[in-house]
Amino acid sequence: MYIGLMSGTSIDAIDVVLADFIGNEIHINAVYSHPWPQNLRDTLLALTQETKEQSVLHAIAILDVKVGKLFAEAVINTLEKASISKEKIHAIGSPGQTLYHHPDGNPSYTWQLGDPNIIAKMTKITTIADFRRGDIAVGGQGAPLAPSFHNAYMHSSEENRGVLNIGGIGNLTVLPADKSLPVIGFDTGPGNALLDAFSYQQQHLPVDKDGMWAASGRVHTDLLKDMLEDEYFIRPAPKSTGRDYFNLEWLSYHILGLSLPPEDIQATLCQLTVDSVANSVKSYDIQRLLVCGGGVHNSLLMRGLADKLPNYKIESTEAIGINPNLVEAICFAWLAKQRLNEKPGNLPSVTGADQAVILGGIYL
After folding, report:
1. How many Å apart are CA 295 and CA 289, to the nearest integer?
2. Which DSSP letter does residue 159 get?
3. Is the dihedral of CA 189, 266, 162, 323 positive or negative?
């Protein structure tokens, strides 16, 4: 039997039909008309009445298409430059571009842009996407997902390892040498997101290359202490966050009423990343910390970590043969493989999900 759902533009009810298709015959086994709650129906009707060109929803829908096209163009250009035929590619694993990530709400949700239908049709390659919501559907955070990949390819039976990704958000994976112990992983807080955003706001530069601007300033200890008292840093794992939380609005709240040189604020933001990461690492028995992501190229940030963690061996994932710039992208290629092989992509010990589940939708 198959189930078909329909809710038309009148939004009067959700029609459900259970049907069998035997030869040319249609066999109806059950039907039901499920009512819309009035408040939810009213909200949907109100949104559909907005002038499309002035609607935020219209703008987001356009972005979904544009991001999907850009992802597809990136794939096509890569294959052309590498002289590799699309027929050799089993699948594309697309994480999408996260717009909002709110796993602790009621209801919890995460929202990524980049229509995978467009990616699949433009590239003519099967695309796997929408990985995070499968984890959230079973009570998880939907992030980070990389620890599952780290566990598959970076685990060592000889030492307790940590894998630190410093992207826009920092995330830590704890890989005990003893396989009977659970893998732990969570977002530590801001990685480069605040540094980049403030650099662009103040200097119109997308990044503070090598932390040079931050290095010209002085850390404001009271501001740093105030920021580190944010509830997120205190909360135990599992936890995840994003730019919709750690952004310039968050920073504005903390610097309100302060008169500080911009370079001092940047220096303090860099130290915020260092301290929040170091505090997380110190909570676990880690002998070797492997670092990846854009932050590995920020020498000020890396020196700060070395100063805060003098008893830890800290090095790039390059040391185990994995390019630190590519770890996250490799992860989603692996997650696509997991989906096609019908194997789980999440780790409940990391995300807090009720169970390990197959992640991602297949777009042929």
Report:
1. 14
2. S
3. positive
Whole-number Å distance between alpha carbons of 347 and 345: 7
The Cα 7–Cα 24 span in angstroms is 26
Q: What is the mean pLDDT of the chain?
A: 95
pTM above 0.90, yes or no: yes
Confidence label for 49 from pLDDT (cuts 50, 70 and 90): confident
State the Cα–Cα distance between residues 121 and 353, nearest whole angstrom. Answer: 32
Cis peptide before 144 (omega within 30 of 0): yes
Q: What are phi and psi of 169, to 5 degrees?
A: -110, 145
Q: How many Cβ atoms are within 10 Å of 233's Cβ, its own excluded?
A: 16
What average pLDDT score do residues 159-164 get?
Answer: 98
* Residue of 288, 326, 90 lying closest to 177 (CA atoms): 288
Name the residue type at position 106: N
Torsion angle of the four alpha carbons 207, 211, 217, 219, in this order, in degrees rounded to the nearest 10: 100
Residue 263 has a CB neighbour count (10 Å cut-off) of: 17
- CA 142/CA 133 separation, integer angstroms: 6
List the structure tokens of 348: 């409940």
Domains of the chain are: 2-48 (no CATH), 52-140 (3.30.420.40), 155-321 (3.30.420.40)
In this predicted structure, the answer to whether residue 276 has a pLDDT above a threshold of 90 is yes
* Strands 313-316 and 288-292, sheet pairing: parallel
Q: How far apart are CA 72 and CA 64, in angstroms?
A: 12
HEC readout, 208-268:
CHHHHHHHCCCCCHHHHHHHHCCHHHHCCCCCCCCCCCCCHHHHHHHHCCCCCCHHHHHHH
Residue 359 contacts residue 131 (beta carbons within 8 Å)? yes
Q: Return the SS3 of 113.
A: strand
Q: Hey, what are 185's tokens?
A: 């992983």
- Which pLDDT score is estimated for 51? 65
Contact predicate 164/288, CB 8 Å: no
Residue 7 has pLDDT above 70, yes or no: yes
Block residue for tokens 């009445």? 49
Place of tokens 């750690």: 246
Q: How confident is the model at residue 8 (pLDDT cuts 50, 70, 90)?
A: confident
Cα(347)–Cα(143) distance, integer angstroms: 10
